[in-house]
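Protein modeling request. Please complete all fields; requests missing the sequence field cannot be processed.
Requester role: graduate student
Desired output: 3D structure, token encoding
Chains: 1
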Amino acid sequence: MIILVTGSSGFVGETLVPKLQSLGHQIIGIDHSDGQYTTKNIDISKPFTIEQKIDVVIHLAAKLVHHRSSYNEYYQTNADGTKNVLDVALKSNAFFVYVSTNAVYGSPESPMTENTKIAPRDGYAKTKLAGEQICKEYESKGLKIAIVRPSVLIGKKRLGLYTIIFKNLYNNSPVRILGNGENRVSFVNIDDLCDFLIFLIEKKISKVTVNFGGKIPGTLNSMLEELKNHTKSKSKIQHISIKYLGILKVLSKLKIIPITDWQLSVMYKDFYHDDKLLSSLGYDYKYEPIDALKDMADYYKSDLM
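Delivered output (305 residues):
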């Protein structure tokens, strides 16, 4: 198949594209920046065309939560951009997969299901939800569409906030986390998400909006202990009381700390999924989140220390 992948220079794109190529698919990779798997530099916030007829579109490109952009900037990429990509898909009547986010639920009680109340808290989540709503409009035009709401994505080369954790582990410095650490937070091993996206296009599963939370891990404390053992660290885990949450949110708003309000709202509590719908589609998770975290720790040590 000829598959258009948006965001081909991003974290998911650079893992997904080689998997697709190994299966014999022809890939057209588009991104606003250069990358190993990007064939065309395109800003999706503006209308564009693809000359070839395409069979499948996997829409990954987005302005992400850590970009901490204005609402208009988020909307131009995540909503207007999604419409522009859908127009390209409609021209070829291509099967369409939209990768959204579980941030559309805000900070709910766990386990989350697809019926959990929608309550996006920030510009990123609100505009990703707008992208979903635009997808529904194009379903009424005849496009076959699947919407995936993944949780936090982890894997080699995506360090982000975890850079601080790995730096402290390797320096034997204290690792500080918000709350008592006995909560379970959903992480998605990047290989699992990519395999599921391939599963969707092979099975042509459409008219579905499905959460993708990854295997439910142990507590944050237990995962950090595993990382301590893996890195041979002597670091102590220090717990920051949630009574300081208000102060942290002010520091976040002022961009003094590299954590968003939404991230603060979920990192101290249970945040995981009930995966009954996913299982009913015939997909079971294959990869352990802790293995991805260990890969990230190894990558930090080999490439950034």
